Amino acid sequence: MSAHPGVLPREEIARIARRERDAGRVVVTTNGCFDVLHVGHARYLQQARALGDMLIVGVNADDSVRKLKGPERPVIPEDERAEMLASLEAVDYVTIFGEDTPCDLLELIRPSIHVKGGDYSLDRVIEREVVERNGGEVVVGIHIPARSTTDIVQRIRELDRRGEVAHGS
Predict the structure, then answer these.
(1) How confident is the model over 7-60, as pLDDT tens digits?
(2) Does 166 fall in a domain?
(3) Rounded distance, CA 5 to CA 164, Å?
(4) Helices and strands in the chain, H and E counts
(5) Are 111 and 28 in contact (CB under 8 A)?
(6) Contact 16, 96 (CB under 8 A)
(7) 162 domain-assigned
């Protein structure tokens, strides 16, 4: 795991979440690849954090990102993505998960609220059943328009093809 104190194994985060819930606090979770962190991510996480007292982010492991996004992704390794997320003011804790879905992680954490982006509808949220079974609620619809890691990566590739990207920095 990362040297950042906010990046922890899932079991430790589950203990923290249980303690917070027992104290009456609202534990919010979200998950994703968060490859090439951008302003859309930061705004999304701020909005998710505003829904409760603590925000826990599950980050897809590198192998999981490759399955979802293709063999050339992620651009940023999992430990660095986790550390970048943990350094954001809106994020309390981050953990990395290697499964195809965050369901096992959410079964452990048992969030009060689980947030998905605006490109999801409630019926498409795979983890909805596990969240609701454990007394939580799924919130969808937080979306920051015109921001996408895929678009950013494509733009960098276009610039690189044209020779406009400085190498070695």
Answers:
(1) 999 999 999 999 999 999 999 999 999 988 888 888 899 999 999 999 999 999
(2) no
(3) 37
(4) 7, 5
(5) yes
(6) no
(7) no
